[in-house]
Automatic annotation (TrEMBL):
Keyword set includes Phosphoprotein: no
Taxonomic source organism: Autumnicola patrickiae
One Pfam family linked to the record: GldH_lipo
The keyword RNA-binding is annotated on this UniProt entry: no
InterPro entries associated with the record: Motility-assoc_lipoprot_GldH
The protein's name: Gliding motility lipoprotein GldH
PROSITE patterns, per the entry: PROKAR_LIPOPROTEIN (PS51257)
Amino acid sequence: MRKAFFLLLAVFTFFGLYSCDSDRVFDEYKSVSTWNKDSVVAFKVDELDSLETYDLFLNIRNNSDYRYSNLFVITEIQFPYGKVITDTLEYSMAAPDGTWLGTGFGDVKESKLWYRENVRFPEPGGYEVRIKQAMRKNGEVEGIENLEGITHVGFRIEHSAQQ
């Protein structure tokens, strides 16, 4: 009887956790120890339903070695037939008092950052999303060579809330 209870509890826990994230279509992370200004974090996305709309997010994990209150990134979406959409984005990573805006316990915080909403993927085939850091110190032209404190870069696609 006791084994049946624990088995039933495990099944309900699994389905409970799965249903909490039912909007997820794609979710992947890449580890970065020190993010070089020339390093590209790339994600390959298989063909998606061309009739649906999706919301896109960047997920950034940082620790206390990150010395900035914001993050600049350059993103590209490469379409199967060669079209490329490029964006330069800025995200706030900390409040004015220095408190990290992400979630999590201890040293590592995770930030789920809006990238694009209501996006369609009209071309058949796989897409590639590429992300580069574009941080610079105030008054300097050259970018920060090696950005410390970012531990993981993630990309997430969800079913659009507008559907």
